[in-house]
Q: What sequence folds into this?
């Protein structure tokens, strides 16, 4: 999984979700409890969008240390995307496929934060069920981007609350400009519903906290952007 993506959560609802025909994740996550990860960045999380520039030095004096100056017009903070999976109905519940990503105002994929799918030989064939993310990712690849699914993906998750972190960079680890972006959360599971949360958010360089609308089994979604 990419260094940009961090998960946290707890299995607040009993039952195991899986999508696809295999049973690998069913076995792997039976009775599992989602890990809890602090909402603050781990020590290995870097903050992008900061350029280094040296101040001019008076040659008659001893040069001092360089000064870190923020690059104007780029995102410098960290966005935490939180959401929960609350299954509808009873009986055996299969784990969903989940994608979390960022699009620019034109709908072009900027960065994929997480893709959870069944880690089996046949698992990837159902990635297209995440139709919005899959279409956006295929468009990025068609435009010359590399296939990053192996680096970004991990296994499906049981019911619970989770967080994914975006460091304000694109898929090439380059800082993006302040402005309007779509925050997207998509879920699909076999014999279950399909949901998409796609919320337009304006990042103007200041802190931002917002609740996102529920959609079916996707609940308690929110964003928290801090500088």
A:
């Amino acid at each position: 999984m990419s260094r940009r993506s961090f998960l946290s959560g707890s299995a607040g609802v009993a039952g195991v979700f899986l999508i696809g025909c295999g049973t690998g994740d069913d076995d792997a996550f039976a009775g599992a409890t989602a890990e809890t990860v602090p909402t603050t960045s781990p020590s290995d999380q870097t903050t992008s969008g900061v350029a280094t520039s040296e101040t001019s030095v008076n040659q008659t004096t001893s040069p001092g240390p360089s000064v870190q100056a923020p690059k104007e017009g780029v995102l410098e903070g960290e966005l935490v995307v939180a959401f929960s999976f609350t299954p509808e109905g009873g009986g055996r519940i299969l784990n969903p496929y989940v994608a979390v990503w960022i699009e620019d105002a034109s709908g072009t994929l900027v960065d994929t934060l997480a893709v959870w799918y069944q880690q089996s030989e046949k698992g990837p064939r159902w990635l297209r069920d995440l139709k919005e993310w899959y279409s956006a990712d295929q468009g990025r690849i068609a435009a010359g981007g590399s296939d990053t699914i192996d680096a970004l993906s991990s296994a499906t998750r049981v019911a619970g609350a989770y967080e994914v972190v975006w460091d304000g960079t694109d898929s090439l680890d380059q800082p993006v400009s302040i402005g309007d972006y779509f925050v997207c959360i998509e879920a699909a599971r076999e014999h279950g519903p399909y949901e998409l949360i796609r919320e337009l958010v304006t990042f103007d360089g200041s802190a931002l906290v917002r609740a996102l609308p529920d959609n079916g089994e996707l609940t308690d979604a929110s964003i928290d952007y801090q500088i």
Notes: The first helix runs from residue 24 to 29.
